[in-house]
Amino acid sequence: MNIDSNRRQRPLISFVVTYHNEDVAMLIECVESIINLSLSKDERQVVVIDDGSDVCPMNSLMAYADDVIYVRKPNAGPGAARNTGIMMATGEYLQFVDADDKLVKFYYEQCIDVVRYADPDMVMFGHTTKDDGEMQVTLPPEKAFTGAEFMRNNNLRGMACGYVFKKDILHNLRYPEDIYHEDEEFTPQLVLRCERLYVTDSPAYFYRQHQGTTMSNRDKRWKVKRLDDMETVIMRLYRKTDTLPHVERQALQRRIAQLTMDYLYNIIILTHSRRFLDERIERLEKEGLFPMPEKAYTKKYALFGKLIKTKWGRNVMLMGLPLMKRWN
After folding, report:
1. Mean pLDDT by 10 residues, the chain (328 residues)
2. Where do the H-state alpha helices sit in 196-273?
3. In what order do the strands lie in the sheet with 197-206?
4. What DSSP string describes 72-106?
5. pTM to 2 decimal places
């Protein structure tokens, strides 16, 4: 069904680019990756939200004045910046993009085709960290899932930029502000609202990895703040499960279990502290979040759940995991 002819009252897709002190050349590259898509000017809206950068990039964006809406606001973090973008967006669909990343035209065009012809609530796609890889034809998604169906049977990627979605399904949902891991709280709630979710492995998003910015290189106060906020997100999602129907509750419980594993893993990697790990596990236990559900979501999850329950297993992971690369 081609419903494109009914959409000319508003842009097809609003692209919200969040910017804060990134290299201006990267911002320009990001904007150009959007403008160079097959979408006409009437079909796209590009909104750059400058989250209080030290140096205003507006002069560098003047060459794109006909294509870009620029909004500068006081620094309040990515959640607040994206909420401003939601308010500004007039498109039927919404795509978040970080200013130091970009869209991969060859693959993102496939997502646009799904948006044009399948009337999805969301199209979820993959990402790449390679800027010069050979393009390969990928099969289009064959069927639509409900968001609950997908989350119930798959591990969800929480990253805010990994999907394009219909703005109308948001209703009053917004990003939490002033915390890290805001996308981990927002994304599962958004996905649960989807009746028609299409999923493709096409690496339509280029994610730029930066040297020296891993969590292990940060100071202690920053690490504790990240862990505190991750715990907050887990608790907030957990409290929502009682209000959900059975299938949606099962779907969110899987995501919470996955986040709990990631949280405990990060405690081990960032603190190397048995005392800190035991204290946080005790807090989870008081809330009913530990022991983790004995489910075979993945082999990694099942193994981690068995080890983290015992003192012996915790000692093994405290000694072994920091010596390993991220186990995927």
Report:
1. 60 99 98 98 98 97 97 98 99 99 97 97 96 72 94 96 99 97 98 98 91 63 96 98 97 99 97 97 98 96 97 96 67
2. 220-240, 246-271
3. 68-73, 44-51, 13-19, 93-98, 163-166, 122-128, 197-206, 102-103
4. EE----HHHHHHHHHHH--SSEEEEEETT-EE-HH
5. 0.93
Task: Write the DSSP string, 108-137.
Answer: HHHHHHHHHHH--SEEEEEEES-SSPPP--
Measure the N-to-C terminal CA separation of the chain; round to a whole number of Å. Answer: 39
Q: In sequence order, what are the residues at sequence separation of 6 or more whose Cβ sits closer than 8 angstroms to the Cβ of residue 100? A: 22, 23, 26, 27, 30, 208, 210
* Three-point CA angle 86, 37, 190, nearest 5°: 30
Distance (Å, whole) CA 41 – CA 91: 12
Using CB atoms within 10 Å of the CB of residue 293, give its burial: 0 to 12 exposed, 13 to 18 middle, 19+ buried. Answer: middle
Which residue type does 64 have? Answer: Y
Return the sign of the alpha-carbon dihedral for residues 237, 238, 243, 248.
positive
